[in-house]
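To the structural biology subgroup,

Please find below the input and predicted structure for Large ribosomal subunit protein bL25, which we are adding to the shared reference set this quarter. The sequence is reproduced verbatim from the submission form. If anyone notices a discrepancy with their own records, reply to this email rather than editing the shared folder directly, so we keep one authoritative version.
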Amino acid sequence: MATALKANPRTDLKGSATRKIRKDGYVPAILYGNKIESQPVAVEGVELLKTVRAIGKNGLFSLDVEGKKKHQVMIHEIQTDPLKGEYTHIDFFEVDMTSKIDVDVPVRLAGEAPGAKEGGVVSHLLYEITVNCLPSEIPEEIEVDISNLNIGDSIQVADIRSQVSVNVVSEDEETIVTIQAPAAEIEPEQLEGEESEPEVLGEKQSEE
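Predicted structure (tokenized):
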């Protein structure tokens, strides 16, 4: 586990102190776990961004608190400024490498569906699949092959369960992706129906 991130303890939790931390280029955070007490910390913003890019959403890395103790952690939650896009707070969860956990793993569609070539629309409905496994076994992503899908076809969790190397927690009936018929085949009929009704009503009113 080569990736490591340095953290400094936070003792002053007042709003003014937190704002100063952010102004100085750091991100306030909390370190917690099942076997440790919650501890407020701060990490350097640029280094945090590099770490997130390097490990991905579910990656494991070492959080070095003041050079005294290293914790094997995952990022549990990141809060972001909606306007600036900057990290404003982060939760680090210390993992037990010997205990299985539930994790949401990103879904990536692979291949080109024949239905899409015929004008169908690829509708990606499920972007994450929940799995249960040891922290060291967490997949970076789950690839779903759509190269055999025609218009009207779909793939459910049940269809890919056996292809995933770890235990899938998500329900079998959840639809991951479907190939919808071209919108142009439906819209004209809907529009005709919508337009015809006011005309009929108008004729009745004029007769009265």
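Summary notes: Residues 187-207 form the longest helix (21 residues). DSSP finds five helices and 13 strands in the chain.

Regards,
Lab coordination
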